[in-house]
Amino acid sequence: MKRLLFVLLLLAAGTAHACDTLSRFGFEFNDDLPVLCNFTGLTSDRHVSRTLGTTASNQGYYEYLPPGYDQDAQAYPLLVFIHGLGENGDGDSQIDDLLSTGIPRLIADDEWQEDLPFVVLSPQNSLGGCTRASSIFDFIQFAKTEYRINPKRVYLTGLSCGAIGSWNYLAAHTNNQIAAVVPIAGNGNSAYNSAGCELNRVPIWAFHGDADGTVGVGGTTGPINNLLSCTDPAPIDTRMVIYPGVGHNSWQRTYDLSAGHDIYDWFLGYKNPAITDPEPLATGRDVEVDFGIQAGATAVPWNNLHNTAGSTIQLTDDQATVTTVSVVISDAFNGTNQNGIAANGVGVPESVTADNFWVGSFDGHAAALLESATVEIAGLDALATYRLELYASRSGNDGGNGRLTRYTIDGQFEDLEVSDNTTGSVVFDGLTGSDTIELSIDVSPSGTGRFAYLSGLTLSRTD
C-alpha cells in the first residue's frame, strides 16, 4: 500500500506545527488539507468505540482520529463508512462487529495508512435491513457538529448493504452534504430510478465483482452506464471498476488498495462547491453552545459538545448561518454529570442547565484550586466587540462547601455560585481586540468549594 507523497518539513520559526507536513501528489501545499503530527504507527490506538447513548448520535459508531487531531484546531476531511448487513448490531455490546471487515478492519489491524488525513467514522445500523438514507444524513450532521470537519470535504463509502444505503442516500440528498461517494458491491438501480441524472451532482466511483452471486453486478453497471449517458447534469466524474471473477467481496481489495485503485487520493481530489463557506459572526447575531449533553442534545440553534476535551468548528448562529466561530477545550475538564437543575430563569433550554462539565478535586478546596479548565473561542473579528454570557447549575451545595465558580478572561474574573442556581449567569461585555477569547474555569479562591462548572454559553456580536 505504497502511495506517492511529498514530505515537506516545516522549518520556519514560529510555525504552529513542529511536525511533518504531508502533501499528496497533485495537491498544493496551501490547500485546505490538514497538517498531520505525532505518528505512532498504530492506528488502532486512535480507533475508539462510541457506544449508543454515550454521544448525541442515534447510532453507536467507531471513531478514528488522524495523528495530531487532539493537539490542534484544524479542520479535517470526514470519511463515513457504511457496513454491510452482517455487521448490523445494537450499537453497544455488538459494536465490535464493525471490525470484521472494510475500513474499520484495516484500522483495527494497524493496516490503515497514517498519512491519510481523514476523520473516519463507522456507524452501526441497529434498525434492521440496509442503513437508511435518513440515518446516514443524520449521522453526517452529527459528525459535522461534534468533530472539526471541513464541510466541503465529506466523503461516503459503503459495502454491500451499506453501498445500497449509500446509493439511496445519494438519491435523497445528492450533494447537500458530501463531496464524493464510493459504493462497493451495491445496487444503485433503485436510486437511479428515483433520482435519475441528478445523481451526477456527486462524483461516483463504484466497484463490483462480475461473479457476485449476492448482489448482481448489474447493481453497479446499470446505474453507472445510465449516468454516463446523462447530459443534464453531465457526470462530474462517474466511473466504475468491475473485477473479473470476483464474487461478493470486492471491497477489501479496494479499501486496502491492493487492486491498484487509490480511492483515498481520488476522494481528496474533490471538494463540494455547493457548501457555503463559513461567515464571520454578524453584528446582532449569537452562537450558543451546550456543554455536557448526557441529558440530551439541545436543539438548534444550539451547538452541542459532549466531550470534556472536545471541540467544534464553524458554529451555526441563531439564523442557522455557518460561522467561522469555533470552540476548543484546550485544557480538559475533569468530568461531566447530569445533576444540573433543568428548570431555569435565564432563558435557555432546560437541556442546557440539566447537565454540565466540571473541574476540581474530591480532596478538598486546596487541592481543587490546583485544577483548571480552559475553553478557547476562536474565529472572531479582532476589530469587533462581543458579549459572552455563561451558564452553570448544579443541585445541592456539596455538604455546605458551595460550588463557587470563577470565570476569567484576560485577568478579569467573575464568580458565580452554581449550587442550586436557576437565575444567575456571568456576563463579560465589551470583549474586543483579539480573534480568540480564552476562558478559564476554576474553583473560586473566595469560596470553600471543591468543584467548578460550565453548562453553556452564548456569544453575541454587539458592535
Strand and helix layout:
Elements: E1 5-9, E2 20-24, E3 47-50, E4 61-64, E5 76-82, H1 102-108, E6 119-123, H2 133-146, E7 149-159, H3 161-173, E8 180-184, H4 189-195, E9 204-209, H5 218-228, E10 238-243, H6 252-255, H7 263-268, E11 286-291, E12 302-305, E13 311-312, E14 326-331, E15 335-337, H8 350-353, E16 356-360, H9 365-368, E17 373-378, E18 385-391, E19 404-409, E20 412-417, E21 426-432, E22 437-443, E23 451-454, E24 456-461
Parallel strand pairs: 5-6, 5-7, 7-8, 8-9, 9-10, 11-12
Antiparallel strand pairs: 1-2, 3-4, 4-6, 11-24, 13-14, 14-17, 15-16, 16-23, 17-22, 18-21, 18-24, 19-20, 19-22
What does this protein look like?
- Mean pLDDT is 91; it is low at 1-18 and 20-30.
- The chain has nine helices and 24 strands.
- The protein is elongated, with a radius of gyration of 24 Å.
- 15% of the residues lie in helices and 29% in strands.
- The longest helix is centred in the N-terminal third of the chain and has 14 residues, at 133-146.
- It has helices at residues 102-108, 133-146, 161-173, 189-195, 218-228, 252-255, 263-268, 350-353, 365-368, and strands at residues 5-9, 20-24, 47-50, 61-64, 76-82, 119-123, 149-159, 180-184, 204-209, 238-243, 286-291, 302-305, 311-312, 326-331, 335-337, 356-360, 373-378, 385-391, 404-409, 412-417, 426-432, 437-443, 451-454, 456-461.
- The strands form five sheets. The chain has an eight-stranded mixed β-sheet with strand order 3-4-6-5-7-8-9-10, sandwiched between helices. Strands 13-14-17-22-19-20 form a six-stranded antiparallel β-sheet. A five-stranded mixed β-sheet has the order 12-11-24-18-21.
- With 463 residues, it is of the alpha+beta class.
